[in-house]
Amino acid sequence: MPNSSSCDVQVHIPRHVAIIMDGNGRWARKRGLARIKGHEKGGENVLAILESVQKLGIRYLTLYAFSVENWKRPADEVAALMLLLEAYINRYFDELVKRRVRLRVIGNINVLPDHARVPLERAIHETARFTGQTLVLALNYGARSEVLEAARSYANDVATGHASTDELSWDKFSRYLYTRDMPDPDLIIRTSGETRLSNFLLLQAAYAEWYFTSVLWPDFDEVQLLKAITEFSLRERRFGRTGEQIASQSDAT
Ligand code: IPE
Ligand code: IPE
Ligand code: MG
């Protein structure tokens, strides 16, 4: 959706922004605080960024909150993260309803502790009717686990006659992924200076634009988001075509 800003620069608002919220631990360490204080601050930032995203008209926001690999962290940090997840879901529930935001999850949440899973499922259920804005939490998410789960369900459907290998297309297979009814991310942001994917949305990111910033997640604010969106706007997404083809397409519209 092109919008004109005051200086007449065309800003293309992405439909789906995904963020790898990294750097909570370093944010806390820089201040001589325990890592969990960084996670608390990072959790507070979720509401602020959700507000900015809504204001800008970005319809899907996906946040990488806990990876399948994060279980390898010290048990006390994992337990504290699960308690924070419960606390933030309870704290933000009214706000999600007020803002008419649908909450979704990608990842296997069946193995989360009940104290976190139950409020999460309730929030997902009670916001399912909202269609304008979607907040997707990637929780116990890993792209490789997602593909394995999809391949298992697909094989099962073939075995029971509900799918046929001859007809397999990307469109059909992608319906077995957690993201089956969501658009692919247009822009993926990673904070904290790391420039790796860490098993996040590997297939859905096939044509996403990546934006890496050294800003730590608790410090990532609306100004930082606007910087990312502005840079996204300046990129030419060619999807395999030539720049000339893209230019003639936009001349025609
Ligand atoms: C991201 O911050 C939050 C989670 C992975 C849960 P980190 O905890 O990874 O922060 P750093 O990378 O140690 O600074
Ligand atoms: C990726 O961050 C996962 C989340 C932000 C939830 P990590 O901090 O766990 O990633 P690595 O281990 O540095 O790659
Ligand atoms: Mg990290």
Largest sheet: 6 strands, parallel
The CATH topology comes to Undecaprenyl pyrophosphate synthetase
Distance between the termini: 13 Å
Q: What strand order characterises the main sheet?
A: 5-6-4-3-7-8
- Could you list the spans in which at least 5 consecutive residues all have pLDDT below 50? none
Q: Given this structure, which CATH class is correct?
A: Alpha Beta
Bound molecules: 3-methylbut-3-enyl trihydrogen diphosphate, magnesium ion
> Into how many domains do the coordinates divide?
1
Rounded mean pLDDT is 95
- Radius of gyration based on Cα positions: 19 Å
Question: Which architecture per CATH?
Answer: 3-Layer(aba) Sandwich
* Mass-distribution shape: globular
The named CATH superfamily:
Decaprenyl diphosphate synthase-like
What is the tally of helical segments?
8
Strand content: 15-25%
Helix % is 40-55%
Alpha-beta classification: alpha/beta
Q: What is the total tally of β strands?
A: 8
